[in-house]
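Deliverable D4.2, example record:
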Amino acid sequence: TLIEHWNGSSWAMVPSPATPGPAGAFNRVSVISPDDAWAVGWTGNGGSTFNALTEHWNGTAWSVVPVPASAGTGINLGAVAAISARDVWAVGLTTSPGPTRDVILHWNGTSWKRAALPAGTPSGILHGVAASSAGNVWAVGQTYNSAGNCGSACHAITLHYNGCMWRRVPSPAPDNAFLWGVAIIGRSDVWAVGSTDYASTLILHWNGTSWS
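Output generated by the structure prediction step:
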């Protein structure tokens, strides 16, 4: 893993703890304050075997925060959104047991726990997550087809957390499209971006009622 910090004048490498596995990498970072930050990614053998990697910055040093087996294994975390010291969301994928499907983890101030996906959520991957408050969190990504890969049956997916539960929200994205990132300005102003089969860019906007 690689961690660098900007002090206002230059970048400097900051020591990162040894990963639990022989290989590892970070995918995203989220900062609450100068002494409260989270980085997420994966650790494993560098191939198809991996587990979730989460590390926390306390203002002095980074430390590994284990994801318990009860929250799942075979997890690769692609994004993280930190709201407070007791409210952090991380999303990605899990392959254990297959097929590849979405995974959402929540930090409650003590440990990571697996969050329930909306009923009927298809296999897929969540690439991005953003939060403006404890009751306004969005996650975006892509579904997979029945063969476990992306083809004409794949779709962009958007999920919303209202403070109590996650629900799937329809979007007008075309078939074979996916979303990589999401940013929240307010409850009626959210942007999600991605691509239509790597052929062209895809930008969606949430106006508080629907995506366009």
